[in-house]
Design a protein that fits this description.
The chain is mainly alpha-helical. The protein is 69% helix and 5% strand. The longest helix has 18 residues.
Length: 954
């Protein structure tokens, strides 16, 4: 195809090639409707480069997994005959998609296969800057789409351009390429180039090149009107008009002849068919067979069915081309026109002959299946589809495998070979699960379960129920998951599979303890214990001991709980059971945490993290690491906690549970430090995950943090409602440990606004928890609540006594923030009771503790209480405290900047007025927004007016 009017696109391609050659991996997708000349444009740019180009294209007719990448690698093999022989330690895994490399590795998963392909491409690029050109991605399979996303990460710093082209008018909603585009855009790793149709001037220029003469005005106008600037259509229509004698030359121009009123082709299809009329009957017959075979095809196969003479004629006439010893249509639109024009009965006959011959030759079953389907032979297509699914699974193309099995099931005759249909449904479920279609997997397996029950065939039901439970858990459908686990346990028990039954019961108990349904979880462990003993499994015994210990510690049986958890860990270590040992470390640390033994819990979580790293156990190590941050927040090590949380959130491979714990704890630190602007998204994510995954401790932490953020933001009504909702949720569960600080804070919140009924409800829950747990932290929380009740009733002396008792109970417990909050309320009560000196002493201590933690709202509250007692803040706490109290925590310079912001000044204008740099002003504005918890300058101005910070403005 001639190139006209593509200078901008050509330059963009050359820039991408140069950037990639410089060592920065580039992914560029070239899009445009069919016939605009994408491939010709790309090939023109690549021809100028002269570097290594590996070409591949997706297959339109038979969807072969990784087809364009496989074609590209084979192109490299042809260019460098021994190039794939030394492809590194993962080379045997490549044999899954390149059988010519020898026997494949016996145990390959998708991740390893992708790593092998990525490593090979990186090696190729390191030897010589490389362009991998993948054409026709509108026909790409799902496996190729997943591979492209992996290659982006692998080739980010390799001198390689991954260049794809696709027809934008054929990428519908749900197409795998849309997912690739969206994800690459999110990663900011995608360059895109849209190739548009030509304008009227460029249309005339292209026609002139094709015809060898400038088109006259009538021809130029007609060409543009009919083709709308699509280059392939322009060329085909121009050639068709010339071949049909419809054009006349006049000096240096060519125009439509006197019969210009005759009908002209309106579509590309009509134009192509106009040209095919000049073919012989043999040429037309062979071209129709080739169209049935696909966009590209085996030349020898089509010649055998249609005749070599027909092949030669089609090539000479420009309909077909020979590429790498394969036949192909010069353009997909030519194939589509010929195929659509072939009569239906004749077309089916071609497909039947092709399917028979392909089957005889042992060609890939997916290609055979497509031909049988096109021939209308459903019964003969079904076995080929199942064979194709098996082959797709072997190369880990699970989405394509699921599609093939699904099509086979749709073709299944009703009432025929029910065992085979159920087996196909089982496979469909496995394939759907492996490519992430959880709903599809559940639907398939549920149908097998129901069919098995109806037939009385219970042999496979337990294992299927186990699989269904896993799917339901991933979907957050916990009631269905627990029911499926119960059915699975019962089924395994009936078959005498005691270990499997116990495994299911322990899995259900583990979830129930996270959901704070502790008594039921303990009952399940008791039900599992006989099966654990009969199975003789040390692994199950260790897990059962660790889990029971964690649950008993949560229920308040602290000494026994910690001892059982230690026994479980010791057994796992003694038996060298690494996974169970990791689980045991975590549950021991959790048991210690729930008994408020925080230094020991820190050591245990750290040991768990180190153990998991040493043993290469992914997932559990990150969970323990995130729980380490949770305890650090408790013990006042906030800066270290922030570092841990950020490290987890920046780790793209960290499990969701670890990330959500990290997000919640980071949000908690931010809100306690008064940085509400950054906290809401973190805490909201944690709350949503806690509710969906039924992790009640996480839900309590996040909801508590959001209520505090509401108060700091001035949204008191929202905070009160959130607090009421929180205590309602706590009342319905057996969670105690995380509930204590949340309930303690709500008593102060309700007391501050005179809500005695709500205050009493919180205090009652704390009383129940303290009675069950008996830990110092729970008893101190109850003392705090009783102090708030006494203060609300006007008994200041009694309140002071209760708050002081709470502080005494805390003793040496390392919970500096909680102690400081209770000490603040003790000071308020002491002041109300006339103990001014003691109140000042405690308020000063609170302020110092808050400053050490960076807890600005608490420090401000302590300073405000001192000011109410008539104390000079500057003398008692220092000039900085006095300034912060006067200006809501803002420095004098920040107040000055805020006042100028409030009257509409820009950062540059403020900088000129204050003789500072714009960058410094930008920093001050950011600090003001953070300290005031605002998102915009307008919101900050409104908040400043509420706080009286604008009164001195000129």
């Amino acid at each position: 195809m001639e190139l006209v009017g593509r200078e901008r696109e050509h330059a963009a391609l050359r820039d991408a090639i140069a950037t990639a050659a410089g060592g920065d991996g580039v992914i560029l997708l070239v899009a445009g409707e069919g016939g605009v000349g994408k491939t010709a444009l790309v090939e023109s740019a690549l021809a100028e480069d002269g570097g290594l180009v590996l070409r591949g294209a997706a297959d339109q007719r038979a969807v072969r997994p990784y087809a364009p990448i496989v074609a590209a690698l084979r192109a490299y093999q042809r260019a460098v005959p021994d190039g794939l022989g030394g492809s590194g330690p993962l080379s045997e895994h490549l044999a899954l998609i390149l059988p010519e490399l020898g026997a494949p590795a016996p145990d390959t998963d998708q991740a390893t296969l992708f790593e092998a392909i990525g490593n090979l491409l990186e090696q190729i690029a390191r030897r010589d800057p490389t362009v991998v050109f993948l054409d026709d991605l509108q026909w790409a399979d799902d496996a190729t789409a997943e591979l492209l996303l992996h290659l982006d990460r692998t080739l980010k710093t390799a001198p390689m351009l991954l260049l794809g082209a696709y027809r934008s008018d054929e990428v519908s909603r749900g197409h795998p390429l849309r997912r690739v585009r969206s994800e690459l855009r999110r990663r900011r790793r995608l360059q895109e180039l849209m190739v548009e149709p030509l304008g009227p001037v460029e249309t005339a220029q292209l026609a002139a090149r094709v015809l060898g003469a400038r088109p006259g005005s009538t021809l130029a106008r007609t060409l543009y009107d009919r083709t709308q600037g699509v280059p392939f259509f322009i060329e085909e229509l121009a050639v068709a008009l010339a071949t049909a004698g419809r054009l006349e030359k006049a000096e240096d121009t060519v125009d439509l002849g006197p019969e210009e009123a005759l009908p002209l082709p309106d579509t590309i299809k009509e134009t192509v068919l106009l040209r095919t009329e000049r073919l012989s009957s043999t040429g037309r017959h062979t071209l129709e067979i080739a169209a049935a075979a696909g966009l590209s095809f085996d030349l020898e196969l089509v010649a055998a069915l249609g005749g070599a003479d027909g092949i030669d004629e089609a090539i000479q006439r420009g309909f077909l081309v020979e590429v790498d010893q394969q036949g192909a249509f010069r353009h997909a639109l030519i194939r589509e026109a010929v195929y659509d024009d072939t009569p239906w009965t004749r077309r089916r006959g071609y497909h039947r002959r092709l399917a028979t011959e392909l089957e005889r030759r042992g060609v890939a079953p997916e290609a055979v299946a497509e031909q049988w389907l096109a021939a209308g032979e459903r019964d003969r297509a079904r076995p080929s589809l199942l064979a194709a699914a098996e082959r797709f699974c072997q190369v880990h193309a699970y989405h394509d495998a699921a599609r093939a099995v699904g099509r086979a099931i749709e073709l299944w005759p009703e009432g025929e070979d029910e065992d085979g249909r159920l087996a196909a449904l089982e496979r469909l479920g496995r394939c759907a699960q492996l490519h992430g279609d959880l709903t599809g997997a559940a639907r398939a397996w549920q149908e097998v379960v129901e069919a098995g029950r109806a037939r009385g065939d219970l042999s496979r039901l337990a294992e299927l129920q186990r699989r269904l439970a896993g799917i339901y858990e991933l979907q957050g459908a916990w009631e269905r998951a627990l029911a499926a686990r119960a059915d699975a346990a019962e089924g395994f028990a009936e078959r005498g599979m005691d270990g499997e039954a116990a495994t299911e019961r322990l899995a259900a108990a583990s979830h129930l303890q996270a959901a704070a349904n502790l008594a039921t979880a303990l009952d399940l462990i008791a039900d599992a214990r006989p099966g654990v003993e009969r199975s003789g499994s040390m692994e199950l015994r260790a897990r059962a001991l660790s889990l029971e210990g964690q649950i008993r510690a949560k229920l308040g049986d602290t000494q026994r709980g910690v001892e059982l958890a230690r026994q479980g860990l010791a057994l796992a270590l003694a038996e060298n059971l690494t996974e169970s040992a990791a689980d045991g470390y975590y549950r021991l640390a959790s048991a210690l945490e729930h008994t408020s033994r925080y230094p020991e819990a820190l050591d245990a979580y750290a040991a768990a993290t180190d153990f998991c790293q040493q043993q290469g156990i992914s997932g559990m190590g990150e969970v323990c690491f995130s729980c380490l941050a949770l305890v650090m927040v408790k013990t006042g090590e906030w800066d270290r906690a922030v570092e841990v949380c950020r490290a987890i959130l920046e780790d793209g491979d960290a499990p969701a549970a670890a990330r959500m714990v990290a997000a919640t704890e980071l949000g908690i630190v931010y809100v306690l430090r008064g940085e509400t602007k950054r906290t809401r998204r973190l805490l909201s994510d944690g709350l949503a995950f806690g509710r969906r995954d039924q992790r009640f401790g996480l839900e309590v932490e996040a909801a508590h943090g959001l209520a505090r953020a509401d108060v700091l933001g001035g949204h008191v009504s929202a905070a009160l409602q959130r607090a009421r909702d929180l205590i309602g949720r706590i009342a319905l569960t057996e969670e105690r440990h995380f509930s204590v600080p949340a309930l303690r804070w709500t008593t102060t919140l309700f007391a501050r606004y005179g809500l005695k009924e709500d205050l009493a409800r919180s205090a009652e829950l704390l009383s129940q928890i303290a009675g069950a747990l008996g830990t110092a932290e729970a008893l101190a929380g109850l003392g705090h609540a009783l102090g708030e009740l006494a203060l609300a009733d006007g008994d200041a002396a009694g309140a002071a006594q209760q708050f002081t008792h709470a502080l005494d109970v805390v003793g040496d417990l390392t919970v500096p923030y909680e102690r400081a909050e209770t000490e603040l309320r003790a000071a308020v009560a002491l002041a109300a009771a006339g103990e001014r000196g003691l109140a000042i002493e405690r308020l000063t201590a609170v302020y110092r503790a808050a400053r050490r933690l960076g807890a600005r709202p608490l420090a401000t509250a302590a300073a405000e209480e001192l000011a109410r007692l008539g104390e000079r803040i500057e003398r008692r706490l220092g000039r900085r405290a006095a300034g912060e109290l006067e200006h809501a925590g803002l420095s004098r310079r920040e107040v000055e900047v805020l006042r100028l912001v409030s009257v509409g000044r820009t950062n540059r204008e403020i900088a000129r007025e204050l003789f500072l740099s714009p960058r410094t002003i930008d920093m001050h504005v950011r600090n003001v927004l953070t300290k005031l918890g605002c998102r915009s300058r307008t919101e900050a101005t409104r908040r400043a007016a509420e706080l009286g910070l604008l009164q001195s403005q000129p």
